[in-house]
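hey team, just a heads up i'm posting the complex here instead of the shared drive bc the drive is being weird again. everything in one block, sequence lines first with there labels, then the predicted structure for the whole assembly after. its two chains so it's a bit long, scroll down
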Amino acid sequence: MVIFILGPIVWLAVHAFASNWQYPNLYPTGLTLHWWSQVFLDSALASAMKNSLITSPIVVICSMIICLPAAYAVGRIKFWGRRAFMIGIFSANSFPKIGLFAAIATLYYSLNLMGTFVGVIIIQLLGTIIYMTWIPAAAFAAVPRSLEEAARDAGASKFTVFRTITLRMAMPGILVAIVMSFLAAFDEAQGTYLVGAPAIYTMPTEMYSLVQNYPIQVAAVFSLLLALPSVLLLGLARKHIMGGQLADGFQLK
Amino acid sequence: MISVLRKKSGEGSRTSNGARTSLLGLALSFPPLLLVLIFVGIPILIGLTFSFGFTHGPNRVISLIGQQIHVKNHWWGTFAAYSDVIHDSRFLGDLGLTIFVTALSTFLVIVMALAISIYQRLIGGKRASILVTLSIIPLFVPVVISAWAIHTFYGGDGFMRSIFSHIGINFPTLTSTPSAIVIGSVWTALPFSILMISSGMQAIPDVLIEAARDCGAPSQKIITNILIPLAKTPIIIAMSFTAIGILGSFTIPLFLGPNQPTMLGVEISNFFSSYNRPQQSLVMAFIVFVAASGIAVSYVWSNVKSARESGRI
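-- predicted structure starts here --
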């Protein structure tokens, strides 16, 4: 199990520092930092990194603004069409992404969104919606009403109750949704490539060409850089994700 | 418990402003719905008309660019593009591989997730929690990287071949074979299933397991008669999400699979950009979508059923 899960990652990580590696040796001929400087000095790779670090946070913030009110409504208000809404979001997600992007291309041409920053943001936004609605909705639904009522009885204003009780108790779920959305946006390659190339490259789309045109060590360095934000987020949200916030979010209630 | 609370607090406000809160709910859920309608619903509908040979209106540009476009010859369109795809021997090979990889990978993922979750539930301890943490790691690795890492690990000069050659065994090169797609799919899909199933198992009360143990039930009986039936809903959710994800996957088969036959996700992209046959490409996307919808229905059905059993509906 350790070899199955960690083996590929470690194997690739070591390549990032290897000067040369001959089959079937189990360790490289020498160690070097040469590949790292090559990545940072390459303007195409550097601009891809910059693009990724700009787009992903914007996508997450847009996703929060658009989806969190809806998540609150689904979690707390028993309105007509609530279940249909959740299933609709889910079925939109089960259409094969690559086919969807092919279909979106037609719309993008007529809206002049091809090769634009806004076009890339929208494409990445689509992949985050399911996380940003489902997980926080379950978190909002799980906040006990009795606590809120007790706070209201004690004289707290509606806004104070929402801020100090509802929002705070739903926070772990929202945090997990933010992490998952960030990863989904940061990770999105097929649609970004179709819509953004050749004007806008992000790290994952750059990775596709990198793998074919550069030595394996450069791709390894780039992979490590690409994995860095995810590892930081893992440290941040591991407790809540393992604590069942993610699992709760995917059960329709 | 939550539903009871909801019922109690709902009763007071329902009479006077029930309609108002209902409207508020609809209004709040409108923005994401609008986004999905415009950028998923409409493109899919337009794509559907295009696949049936409607080449005017929004489909005009793509009909001019694409090759082998069939134009409708009835008022409802034409099946010509569908017939192209179904009679393409390459498509049949792709479909076979896609179904094989999806079925095998989903099976392996669920078996592994079940084994780890049951181990954690019945035996527990430090080793179990390390095992669960380990299996979650792929969730945080971007797919492009996992695909590339697995590509080098099982490739011609990768670790597996290197280490086996030291003990004198010629380990096969798995990269560019269906086996590598299965390995990659399992690797990336495992975390979600583990999270779903293990949290389902953790929710089973200790009392039930202890009572069965006191009556002398062997572990095997506890697993088949208590753990698996009570965690059925999360298991089905994990199964359908895994299968839908693998069915439409692109990056994993692109990096790890053979050139021919390949999985439909890759073939959709090939037909769209490399072969410039957008109509046939969309036809394949709809075939995958129909298969995915079949799986999605089982997911929704399982959720509704479990909600009914626990009295939430």
